[in-house]
Amino acid sequence: DYAFLIRTVFLGHAGEQVSGMASRIVLHIGGEKTGTTTLQCFLSRNAETLKRSGFCYPGDQEDIFFERDAHFPIAARFMEEKAEFISEASQDVLPFVVDALSQKLFDINETVILSCEQFSSRLTKASQLLALRDSLPADEVKIVFYAREPSSLALARWSTSIRCGAKNEFNVDEVTPESAYYNHLETLRLWAFVFGEENLIVREYNRDRLVGADVRRDFCASLGIDFDGMQIEEEQNQSFDVQRLEVLRFINCALAEFNGSEMEWRKAQKVRELLSAYIPPTGALEDLLGDSEKASIKSRFEAVNRELNERYFAGQLSEDWFPNLNSNDAVRRRQYKPATDFSSVLRETIIRMAEERVSGALAPDGEQCVLAIEGDGPTRALDRIGVDLDATVVQGAAKAVSSAKAIAYFFGERSLRRRFS
Questions:
Q1: Distance in angstroms (rounded) separating the CA atoms of residues 141 and 114
Q2: Contacts of 367 (CB under 8 A, 6+ apart)
Q3: What span, in angstroms and rounded, lies between the C-alpha atoms of 31 and 202?
Q4: Given 39, 218, 256, 303, which residue has the most CB atoms within 10 angstroms?
Q5: Adjacent-strand bridge partners of 144
Q6: Would you place residue 153 in the very low, low, confident or very high pLDDT band (cuts 50, 70, 90)?
Q7: Is the pLDDT of residue 379 over 60?
Q8: Least reliable range by pLDDT among 5-9, 179-183, 291-295
Q9: C-alpha to C-alpha distance for 333 and 312, rounded to whole angstroms
Q10: From edge to edge, which strands make up the β-sheet containing 138-147?
Q11: pLDDT of residue 106
């Protein structure tokens, strides 16, 4: 059967338990929204150069424990719920991930680096971490964790959630120490309980505090990796501006959620990615929080962050983590409220995309996405958004592409009359 085939291909013999042992593993566990995608891309591209310093970043295209430059399937293997951050193909082989990793690391002499931010955000029980620890084929395991100030982390998290299908507005009241996602002290206590506090390497994710103002340089410096000769690419997965997020948030009302249909959600992700490139950007994400809101969050976390500071940072956390009681900024600076005219923004979005489609500049993946959505009846789906567009807008866009198909992709074959409320 399929499971037998997978085990045979990756492990040599069905039922075989591999007991390879690396001398040392460095587990980079995030946290989320701390430049993890940029760091993982860097480690993957420089896998051969890393060996110069005695480090190994394992993962080839055929390795079932590796996906998109990181070790997401390993974290997914120990989750209780289904993981949306790995592919459907990886879902099918999760039972074999640990054995495949053991075989890969058999007789490796270098220090092994494994990276996945969901280690810290999705494995939140001691039982999960104990199972992870017992599965790692190494004599010694070190944990690397980057902590981001909660108010900044909350905005970045909201940005990612919208890009993955969420519809909710940003809510400052949800950012509390009771949420393990923002409470780094609780996260580190859990990992210290399982792996030992002496094995934790904790860094502040703040450009002013990172070596060379770069998480890649900082990570290498923390582990004693020689940075000379490394390939450096553009930073990855940066937060969107407010306007793109607001438009996506409303469009999400017409697209599938992960908990509904996984297949439709993955298709919807392609739509979001495609649209994001054409929505006109406006408004910095950090401006969604006024100083009074930031001060409120920092006050809630003051006790937690002061203990975090003393326990893991030797009192050296930057002042950004704590409320400034002498500041009058909260009175002078107010929260930015996006005033998005969705009709105008969507009109500009469709014209931008139509022009690229006519010129042939639209990427093949984007063209395939257009055709797939057109075949799915976009009128029914997008009608649920309720953006008010008159016939002139639709006709004008049709002239831009000399085809009604691109219009059908975004708005359906008739104009949308109901305004979202």
A1: 10
A2: 357
A3: 10
A4: 39
A5: 28, 201
A6: very high
A7: no
A8: 5-9
A9: 33
A10: 55-56, 111-115, 22-28, 138-147, 200-204
A11: 85
CB atoms within 10 A of CB 36: 25
HEC sequence for the chain: CHHHHHHHHHHCCCCCCCCCCEEEEEEECCCCCCCHHHHHHHHHHCHHHHHHHCEECCCCCCCCCCECCECHHHHHHCCCCCCCCCCHHHHHCHHHHHHHHHHHCCCCCCEEEEECCHHHHHCCCHHHHHHHHHHCCEEEEEEEEEECCHHHHHHHHHHHHHHCCCCCCCCHHHCCCCCCCCCHHHHHHHHHHHHCHHHEEEEECCCCCCHHHCHHHHHHHHHCCCCCCCCCCCCCCCCCCHHHHHHHHHHHHHCCCCCCCHHHHHHHHHHHHHHHCCCCCCCCHHHHCCHHHHHHHHHHCHHHHHHHHHHHCCCCCCHHHCCCCCCCHHHHCCCCCCCCCHHHHHHHHHHHHHHHHHHCCCCHHHHHHHHHHHCCCHHHHHHCCCCCCCHHHHHHHHHHHCCCHHHHHHHCCCCCCCCCC
- Taking 50 as the threshold, does the pLDDT of residue 256 lie above it? yes
**In whole angstroms, what is the distance from residue 140 CA to residue 131 CA?**
15
**pLDDT exceeds 50 at position 2:** no
Under 8 Å CB-to-CB from 151, ≥6 apart: which residues? 175, 289, 293, 294, 297, 298
**Cα(240)–Cα(246) distance, integer angstroms:** 10
Residue 165 pLDDT grade (very low, low, confident, very high; cuts 50, 70, 90): confident
Place of tokens 């394992």: 58
Residue 26 has which token pair?
């460095």
The answer to whether residue 73 scores a pLDDT higher than 60 is yes
Looking up tokens 């059967």, which residue turns up? Answer: 1
Q: What is the pTM of this model?
A: 0.78
State the pLDDT confidence band at 326, using cuts at 50, 70 and 90. Answer: low
Decide if pLDDT at 83 tops 50. Answer: yes
Residue 213 burial class via C-beta count within 10 angstroms: exposed 0-12, middle 13-18, buried 19 and up: exposed
Whole-angstrom Cα distance, residue 83 to residue 79? 7
Q: Please provide the distance, in angstroms rounded to a whole number, between the alpha carbons at the two ends of the chain.
A: 52
